[in-house]
Specification:
This protein is mainly α. The chain has ten helices and no strands. The relative contact order is 0.08.
Amino acid sequence: MMAMSSELIWSSFIMFWLFYIGAILGSFIHVVVSRTLAGRSWTTGRSKCDRCHYQLSWYDNIPLLSFIFLGGKCRKCRKPIASMHFWAEVLSGLVMIWWWLAAGQELTAHLDISSLVKAGVYASFGWVGLVIVLVDLKKMIVPDRATLAIFVLAGLWLLWRFLTSQIGFDTVVTAIASGLVTLAVFGAIVGLTKGRGMGWGDLKLAPALALFVGWPLAFIGLLFAVWSGALVGVVLLLSGRARRGQPIPFAPFLIFGYDLALLVGHQAWQWYWTWALGA
């Protein structure tokens, strides 16, 4: 019991600091995304209040804590600070925990070239995904360069695992097929709804994600994305925060769905077939 309690405390300690390190990274990523979208340089100039342009001090820029202690308001003008600053840090903290669970903790068990490559690939996948989420939430667009980065990452990840005999040629073929089928499905939705049911950015992003995760996770990830998107959509409609027919960014749900699939997709797939065959 004592050993189990100590292990739980240690795991909680690791998760806490991973989350906060992720929040620090998220604060930087959000600055880069926001300034780039606004056509400003992110390498020069200190952060300012969006309302009164008060130049923020270091203690106004502590990830998560400053927003909480200031009550979400500027220290000088007391106008509300855009909540996206806070939520970007939260999301990035969750990305860090996701990375640790999906790939990072393998480093402590098997520190070799394979685990290092996987950790690097998953980290890149996670934070490129975060950039896509932030841009889509802010501007309702999916940046082509980020989607291309996912495609390239997926191709290199497949090639690496094939060349190191971690997967066979059949896995490569099914991964490519997953991407093509996903492209066909999203293309049909875009074509039939004339772009109202799904955006062109989603059409390009979905097959890149499917190629990265392969089969059957491509199918599981899409289910997670659709279910989570439908759930949030219903909540927004019932709460009056969205109107029927109002477009809602779908890329965040795609990223969430495929990230979740990488964590629990195989278990969900096995559970379904155990349940189906048992029934």
